[in-house]
From TrEMBL:
InterPro entries: CB (IPR044068), DNA_brk_join_enz (IPR011010), Integrase-like_cat_sf (IPR013762), Integrase_recombinase_N (IPR010998). Gene3D superfamilies: 1.10.150.130, Intergrase catalytic core (1.10.443.10). The lineage of its organism: Bacteria, Bacillati, Actinomycetota, Actinomycetes, Streptosporangiales. GO terms for molecular function: DNA binding. This is Uncharacterized protein. It comes from the Bacteria. GO terms for biological process: DNA integration; DNA recombination.
Length: 494
């Protein structure tokens, strides 16, 4: 039976450990509290949940140095863990012992990170999650519970409700909106390949890394093999299999096969001397004009977000500038030719064809209105999943196409993908594409201007001349609203 004994000015608990060795823990104010702790330890030994108090005396930084090298994860995941631990977590708790950490102080630390402006709420949440992952590996060998673990259904009820609503509102696009974003992206970059890449993601549900890592050898007449990905890490791109090993074959509609066939086979500019697992050269479908791999953040900042939002985001650092609307010349085509550098916001300061070197006198200057605010390339993946749900595509085929393979569900075990399912999916995607072109022609009739993207002009020509048969009058309600809304944007000149 455990007991308490005098130890200096305080008391210490004494009990027999699992090896029948006498264990002691000092620091109790009363003999009764020490005895209670000692009895709890012996009860934990009998229940098989005993943790040696000395095991938790290791500092967090020493434990991280034991835990981190043992992790077998994606390089990008490891880099994210390392960055959060070094820059945020260890500076606060690195010298503390595992046993001394409490749930209350960790929760307060997360709030203060945001309150003091050290990082965003998302980064603070990620930092606590990484700390929780590190401490979870110490349970039960070194500590009994994980103090960084979040308790379910805690915090403000209103906050949790808002988070659920915002998650449900995550941006996704209709086929027409995806086409309009792709058109604007190509108008900004001047690259036909960027137009095709945006549509590729929208109509396959591929991840950004899978699109960047697509090789010509994986593109076939009616199927695309998503076998590889390219992730950006430390200024380089490393090559590996898709997330969670989700290698898969994607059935492609005829229009997408034709678009991909237009792209030339090119080799990337990566150095052959680059060590594995980083890219050391090869042929890829989507490359920048200089032969490099597009960086997600750079592509989003320069092209995708201005195309979807109608605004360039604010920029910090030595090239700092405030957020600015995209200003275009629509005298000859729509959505127009972008005027660079971006003109500052404020209607009174917008030039009307004057004061900009090289701008013709007949220039018609407009500001782009948003197509869909907060849309991202990953939002196109959400869009693709939503389109398949609307078209009643079988769940097992949707899971396969999105790379959600082998989830262990009964459905995935007993249901199999058939050729009929694949045929229905390809047909529905082809119809959505053709309908989006027909809707785009309807917008063009309103503006009386051809597209600024030569490839899209070519694709629209059959629909302008009425060569393509009617696709059907039954359109989803949101698609009709998108056409009407975009017509209103065209007429709202600034």
């Amino acid at each position: 039976m455990g007991y308490g004994e005098k130890h200096g000015r305080m008391f210490r608990a004494c009990w027999k450990g699992p090896t029948n060795r006498l264990e002691r823990m000092p620091g109790f104010l009363t003999k009764k509290a020490a005895a209670q702790y000692a009895n709890d330890q012996e009860a934990a030994i009998r229940a098989g949940r005993y943790v040696d108090p000395r095991a938790g005396q290791i500092t967090l930084i020493d434990w991280v140095n034991i835990w981190y090298p043992a992790q077998d994860l994606e390089l990008t995941t490891l880099e994210t863990y390392r960055s959060l631990l070094e820059n945020i977590v260890l500076g606060e708790f690195g010298e503390r012992t595992l046993a001394s950490l409490t749930a209350e102080e960790i929760a307060a630390w997360e709030k203060n990170l945001v309150r003091n402006g050290r990082c965003s709420a998302r980064t603070a949440k990620d930092a606590r999650s990484v700390l929780g992952t590190v401490l979870a590996a110490a349970v039960p060998a070194r500590i009994q519970v994980n103090p960084a673990q979040r308790k379910r259904a805690t915090g403000k009820k209103a906050t949790r409700r808002v988070q659920r609503v915002m998650q449900a509102r995550k941006a996704w696009a209709t086929p027409l909106e995806a086409l309009l974003v792709a058109e604007r992206v190509a108008a900004l970059s001047g690259q036909e390949s960027d137009f095709i890449e945006v549509l590729f993601i929208a109509y396959t549900g591929a991840r950004w890394s899978e699109a960047v890592g697509l090789e010509p050898s994986c593109v076939h007449s009616d199927v695309i093999d998503l076998d590889w990905k390219l992730y950006e890490l430390n200024g380089h791109f490393y090559r590996g299999h898709p997330k969670d090993g989700s290698i898969r074959a994607i059935d492609t509609p005829p229009f997408l096969t034709g678009l991909l066939a237009r792209l030339p086979t090119r080799s990337c500019s990566c150095s052959p001397e680059t060590e594995d697992p980083y890219c050391s050269g090869g042929t890829y479908v989507f490359l920048t004009p200089g032969g490099g791999h597009a960086r997600r953040s750079d592509f989003a900042r320069r092209y995708f977000r201005p195309a979807s939002d109608g605004w360039y985001a604010a920029r910090g650092g030595k090239d700092a500038r405030p957020a600015a609307p995209v200003l275009v010349d629509v005298s000859a085509s729509w959505p127009g030719k972008a005027i660079n550098p971006p003109w500052p916001a404020g209607a009174d300061s917008y030039p009307r064809g004057r004061g900009i070197p090289g701008l013709p006198a007949e220039a018609a200057l407009w500001n782009w209105r948003p197509i869909m605010k907060d849309l991202t390339p990953h939002g196109l993946r959400h869009s693709h999943e939503t389109w398949m749900a609307e078209d009643r595509i079988a769940d097992v085929l949707r899971d396969e196409r999105m790379g959600h393979i082998g989830d262990g569900s009964m459905r995935s075990h007993y249901t199999h993908v058939t050729d009929q399912m694949r045929g229905e999916l390809v047909e529905s995607l082809q119809k959505r594409w053709e309908q989006s072109l027909a809707d785009r022609v309807a917008l063009e009739q309103h503006s009386a201007l051809p597209s600024s993207v030569p490839l899209l002009n070519e694709l629209l020509e059959p629909f302008r001349s009425g060569v393509v048969a009617s696709i059907g009058s039954a359109r989803p309600r949101r698609a009709l609203q998108s056409v009407r809304r975009e017509r209103g944007r065209l007429s709202a000149r600034l």
